[in-house]
């Protein structure tokens, strides 16, 4: 089997069999180096056999900051990733680094499959996102068991938003809980960066429901970054 690139550069977020999701960030520095790194990743993967059936998909998103790349990969289990690291990762990274020297690999976090998700419309719209907004919410170690409560509060606030502003531009949101207990990640698809900025600026975001989200006692920090889909690979015949 070999790697096949999806035309829409978008992973199947709800594909069956996902037991672990790995999310990492690379800092490459400029838009030109972003594009070069994505192309180097494509070449390194398409020129080799797909590493293992334990890897279900591998996607790369380009930060709208012009500096970063985000990697989102779906695995059957965490051990499948460990096997990949031991046998297949180094030669791919060496080829990518030769093409784009000086990549800074900032962080890697490990998550379970989707904990909760929301999709516009009862069965989803099928429309493609203009941007993906990655929300990382960090929690005090003693509050790891309260992350589910925080996600529930987000859904309560979103339900209020949907009642007052149904056409906000949000397409879907997928919430993951990290294995280490310290983070919730929301992989949120939006029509456009402008639509997301408009939603953030809306007065409804100052509601009591959102205040309960922002001031959850176990929450210690939130980062929001915006990305454009760039590449998504999976195994082909």
Write the layout of secondary structure elements.
Elements: E1 2-5, E2 20-27, H1 31-46, E3 55-63, E4 68-75, H2 78-87, H3 89-99, E5 104-111, E6 116-119, E7 131-139, H4 147-164, E8 170-177, E9 183-190, H5 193-201, H6 208-214, E10 219-236
Antiparallel strand pairs: 1-10, 2-4, 2-5, 3-4, 3-10, 6-8, 7-9, 7-10, 8-9
Summarize the structure.
Helices cover 30% and strands 35% of the residues.
Notable features of this structure?
ten-stranded antiparallel β-sheet
Straight-line distance between termini: 5 Å
Beta-strand portion reads 35-45%
Average of per-residue pLDDT values = 92
| Element-by-element helix/strand order | EEHEEHHEEEHEEHHE
Q: Which outline best applies? A: globular
* Uncertain segments: none
Structural class: alpha+beta
Question: What report would you give on this structure?
Answer:
- The chain has 237 residues and is of the alpha+beta class.
- The protein is built from 6 helices and 10 strands; from the N terminus they run E-E-H-E-E-H-H-E-E-E-H-E-E-H-H-E.
- Strands 1, 2, 3, 4, 5, 6, 7, 8, 9 and 10 form a 10-stranded antiparallel sheet that branches.
- A hairpin with a 4-residue loop joins strand 3 and strand 4 (68-75).
- Helix 1 runs antiparallel to helix 3 and helix 4 runs antiparallel to helix 6.
């Amino acid at each position: 089997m070999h790697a096949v690139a999806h035309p829409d550069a978008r992973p199947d977020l709800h594909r069956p069999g996902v037991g672990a999701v790995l999310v990492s960030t690379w800092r490459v520095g400029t838009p030109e180096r972003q594009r070069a790194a994505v192309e180097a990743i494509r070449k390194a993967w398409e020129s080799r056999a797909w590493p293992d059936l334990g890897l279900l998909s591998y996607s790369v998103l380009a930060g709208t900051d012009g500096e970063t790349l985000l990697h989102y990969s779906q695995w059957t289990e965490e051990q499948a990733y460990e096997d990949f690291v031991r046998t297949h990762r180094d030669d791919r990274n060496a080829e990518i680094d030769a093409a784009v020297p000086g990549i800074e690999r900032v962080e890697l976090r490990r998550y379970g499959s989707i904990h909760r998700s929301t999709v516009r419309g009862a069965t989803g719209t099928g429309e493609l996102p203009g941007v993906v907004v990655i929300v990382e919410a960090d929690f005090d170690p003693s509050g790891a068991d309260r992350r589910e409560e925080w996600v529930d509060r987000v859904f309560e606030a979103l339900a209020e938003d949907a009642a007052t502003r149904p056409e906000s531009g949000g397409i879907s949101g997928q919430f993951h809980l990290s294995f280490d207990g310290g983070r919730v990640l929301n992989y949120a698809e939006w029509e456009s960066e402008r639509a997301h900025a408009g939603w953030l600026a809306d007065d409804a975001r100052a509601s009591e429901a959102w205040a309960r989200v922002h001031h959850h006692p176990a929450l210690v920090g939130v980062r929001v970054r915006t990305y454009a889909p760039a590449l998504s690979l999976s195994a082909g015949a």
